[in-house]
């Protein structure tokens, strides 16, 4: 899998005017360290924020730019920042970077941390200034060992240059930054589970309210933002709101650019920085090059394993939250997966649901018991041993585990691809139902109340 931000056949030139996240990338894929980063206008936005902007003005600028979270939920960043308390007497606040990138088929944050670690640090530094936070943590997926190594080196470089630590840039503002590697749990992508894990507790989501902005890590006001989200901040501060909004395609309600990708049996799997509003077809055909010879596109997911499947006719949807919602699913992380015509959807869903069942924190009953139940039914159907009513039971679980039915969004994300797969490929599920003569007696089958 390539980690690149180039355009079709590497013919599109990246520039600061059009590719705020990736224009500094080296062609050889090596990390951009402090000297090179500063030579490419690095930390200029931080200097501007510290010298020329009041803290509330930074928050307002990010809000006016329309920056939204890039981790999948898409909540407006400036609004989230505005939830932090204004009381100056609260002098202990935290900024957490959610770098626990465990969504299957997603690797965008990894690229930024491995190749542009100082971009993330600068984004966190400006954000910390705006939020009056004195300490920050990058909560990193434990398997990202190269990212951990590069981030730690970049933190030390920034400290030595007076860009982290005490009295940053002579402003009197102090900010310490630490890289914290997690133990490897998907649920840590949920911000309150991340907070519990950082505190050394079991990674269960917390009840909200209170929200982290009021009661977060160690009971103090806390803001949690995604890696890609924070990496957008320097360009917004340096070049302004109007420029940032102009980057998106006409019709998009989301502003700026987005790291998007395509994996699967496509000719050119990879990662590209593209304006919000490009179509799925452009991403698939112009950038990913379409399917490899001998394969046909059967279905695709627009943004990670927790998003619903779409059909080839949905490729003309625009890649932004509202555009993907129009065809029945979510933008998610923006990294798409192509499913080719050799893949059996029942087997694919069984594999997915096994992952989600294993990664459930077990805190609430629908998720803890419902996901393993879906796996058992899918395994039976996959082996041709499904019983009449199993598909209806699966659809019942999709409803029982949907939005608002569980403590956090883990289960709704887990069953969204299941529901869409049955919707579009029900015949493949029906093919795994055993003849009636081979059916298990009714009392031996599980019963779903309300299914």
Automatic annotation (TrEMBL):
SUPFAM superfamilies for the chain: Nqo1 FMN-binding domain-like, Nqo1 middle domain-like, Nqo1C-terminal domain-like
Keyword Hydrolase: no
Function of the molecule: NDH-1 shuttles electrons from NADH, via FMN and iron-sulfur (Fe-S) centers, to quinones in the respiratory chain.
Cofactor(s) for this UniProt protein: [4Fe-4S] cluster; FMN
The keyword Iron-sulfur is annotated on this UniProt entry: yes
Principal EC category: translocase
Family stated for the protein in its record: Belongs to the complex I 51 kDa subunit family.
GO molecular function, one term: metal ion binding
Species lineage: Bacteria, Pseudomonadati, Pseudomonadota, Gammaproteobacteria, Pseudomonadales
Enzyme Commission identifier(s): 7.1.1.-
Protein name: NADH-quinone oxidoreductase subunit F
Keywords associated with the record: 4Fe-4S, Flavoprotein, FMN, Iron, Iron-sulfur, Metal-binding, NAD, Oxidoreductase, Quinone, Translocase
Reaction(s) catalysed by this chain's protein: a quinone + NADH + 5 H(+)(in) = a quinol + NAD(+) + 4 H(+)(out)
